[in-house]
């Protein structure tokens, strides 16, 4: 990686590391209890720390089996290592979707470049699937998802699992994902004059994560360019109307559907990238509830004491 590109990435990394933990106060779900622990998972690209969120009550499926699992990958342009930015989403899903949530602190660029993050994401998920009995969850019922860069990694985990025939997530949540890293970010238009993501910032993200241009078309880097999508897990695809990444997310949803993958696609109007963290609050809450509802359906969970949720 050129020295200038590394310096730019480090500067943005330092700038955004604090900013990306500032979730809107009305999206923090501080009223929901939180039971967490930290575990370390060994992967083929080094150890990864993960925060485990447990359902706050003895939440089970109707057959009284251990709770299923949702593996979450945070955003941050592949260069910001702040899994706690998703604390509110993990807290809400654990409390209302009746599943264990694993929030993954994968390695970021420019210190660790492609394919480190996607290797770690896959290996952690495979470990979750294989080690359920020892940790009190049902690894046979797993879903994966994430926001932005984390959604890109989600697509990579699902593709790798399919190609290797190792496990089959019951749902993938693709929220505001970068899915075509080959296109010049200046060609990715927004419906507003000053969207959150600028072309220059997006170029810094991509150059740091994928320093070798030959890798940009790899389907683990640009899942939206792949033409072999059949057999991937059912998907919830969320896009934001004013996001520069909206068009590629919309196109990916259509391509998955055309390949026979069950897809729920929702475009949230009047919002930009990262709205599930910074608002507007009504749209952010609606999107997070949509995730929780999709997970309840896919994983077959119920939440005792919450009749509104049990009836969903």
Description:
The structure is a single chain. The chain is α/β, with parallel strands linked by helices. It has one domain: Rossmann fold (3-Layer(aba) Sandwich), CATH 3.40.50.1820. The chain is about 35% helix and about 15% strand. Helix 7 (about 245-260) links the parallel strand 7 (about 235-240) and strand 8 (about 265-270). The longest helix is centred in the last third of the chain and has 19 residues, at about 280-300. The model is unreliable at about 60-65 and about 305-310 (pLDDT under 50).
Keywords, separated by commas or semicolons:
10 helices, alpha/beta, single chain, eight-stranded mixed β-sheet, 312 residues
How are the SSEs placed, and which strands pair?
Blueprint: H1 3-19, E1 35-41, E2 48-54, E3 67-73, H2 87-96, E4 100-105, H3 116-130, H4 132-135, E5 137-147, H5 149-164, E6 172-175, H6 199-209, E7 235-240, H7 246-258, E8 263-268, H8 275-278, H9 281-299, H10 307-310
Helix pairs in contact: 1-6, 2-9, 3-5
Q: What fold name stands as the CATH topology?
A: Rossmann fold
Tell me the CATH superfamily.
Alpha/Beta hydrolase fold, catalytic domain
Percent of residues in helices comes to 25-40%
Structural class: alpha/beta
Arithmetic mean of pLDDT: 93
The appropriate CATH architecture is 3-Layer(aba) Sandwich
Beta-strand fraction estimate: 15-25%
CATH uppermost class:
Alpha Beta
Low-confidence spans: 58-63, 307-312
Radius of gyration: 18 Å
Summarize the structure.
This protein has 312 residues and is an alpha/beta fold. Helices cover 36% and strands 17% of the residues.
